[in-house]
Amino acid sequence: xxxxxxxxxxxxxxxxxxxxxxxxxxxxxxxxxxxxxxxxxxxxxxxxxxxxxxxxxxxxxxxxxxxxxxxxxxxxxxxxxxxxxxxxxxxxxxxxxxxxxxxxxxxxxxxxxxxxxxxxxxxxxxxxxxxxxxxxxxxxxxxxxxxxxxxxxxxxxxxxxxxxxxxxxxxxxxxxxxxxxxxxxxxxxxxxxxxxxxxxxxxxxxxxxxxxxxxxxxxxxxxxxxxxxxxxxxxxxxxxxxxxxxxxxxxxxxxxxxxxxxxxxxxxxxxxxxxxxxxxxxxxxxxxxxxxxxxxxxxxxxxxxxxxxxxxxxxxxxxxxxxxxxxx
Length: 328
Known about the structure:
Elements: E1 4-5, H1 16-26, H2 45-52, E2 57-61, E3 64-69, H3 76-95, E4 101-108, H4 110-114, H5 129-153, E5 157-165, H6 169-174, H7 191-207, E6 211-216, H8 223-228, E7 233-237, H9 243-254, E8 258-264, H10 273-287, E9 295-300, H11 309-327
Parallel strand pairs: 1-9, 4-5, 5-6, 6-7, 7-8, 8-9
Antiparallel strand pairs: 2-3
Helix pairs in contact: 1-3, 2-3, 5-7, 10-11
């Protein structure tokens, strides 16, 4: 089985066309639609997700994004986020014209949004059961439309992956998300509720014929919960894994699912192709799997928005050459 290489999502700079060209050049077997948050409001992970959600209006306040209702009157910043996403898809459609193969897009998950976005009367959506539910369902419906739009633009793509980013999930489950005042913490969310919200989003992706992955580079992310909710790919940071995580990732690979292993750091480091490849091989040896027999993907540890342009390109080169070595 061929080992692939891809990116997690974000890249540095302010030019989406430049970022897209780099991705298509450095990650030709599994390119992704990059996020370029350096462009400003609406271009980051949360802004892009709020551009996708169906039927919920939002605007940007001094404290961050806030929902404003469902009247069909989005704020200027949400309109900008939608415009940027449309422009990005236009550019990718042009640059990837005729591309055949796998392609990946990313979207912030329901729990990361609930821990980040405020409800209309203040404080995080996480504090309101009804708001949490409404957000997850609106995201699921929005993702359906997004998948259809990507397929319409990239007609020759044979495998579409939708990566749901959930860096805040572990904190949500552990009750570690601070309240608006900063003096308290939101109550922890029960695992069944967390699983159900994820299942709505992951199920919508699968029903549209795309492949649902979940990414988190945070420690203590419950990988079993992600798989139970419908994730068919797990994207993780190797350096953040606990003892149980290794066994759960091995189980996923043995079940024919995909593991995207983050092995190249987001900060500059003196690394060779061989060093990166050896990290992957050592991990495979530890869990008792042959990399030629499982669906393994090599990635940077997380998004690269905070990296230098030089390191971001180098990180993508390293994962590409490592994947090629592992496939030999």
